[in-house]
Amino acid sequence: MVEHANGQPKNFKIYRKYHDRLRRADGWYCFVVYRPYGRSVCTVLQDKLVRASSLPLLRWHGGGDHRGTQQAKIAIGDAF
Question: What is the pTM for the complete model shown?
Fold first, then answer.
């Protein structure tokens, strides 16, 4: 989604454990920005394939207990 209900911009979350595995495999991310309509329909506004090794510098921080790894956030504007 483009933004939260309160108008704040959304971002993509990258999890370090999975990101490291993807980089070792020379993998890619597919970033998609969409706008939902109702419960089961959405319109894709933008999409982009990015090699995992080409992401901008990530600032890792604790992700709490979520997925048992650190996480980084990438603003939609930085991904596109």
Answer: 0.77
**C-beta separation of 2 from 43 below 8 A:** no
Q: What is the DSSP string of the chain?
A: --B-TTSPBPEEEEEHHHHHHHHHTT-EEEEEEEEEETTTEEEEEEEEEEEGGGSPPP--B--TTGGGS-EEEEEHHHH-
Do residues 72 and 59 lie in contact, with contact meaning Cβ atoms separated by under 8 Å?
Answer: yes
Q: pLDDT tens for residues 19-49?
A: 999 999 999 999 998 888 888 899 999 999 9
Question: What is the chain's length?
Answer: 80
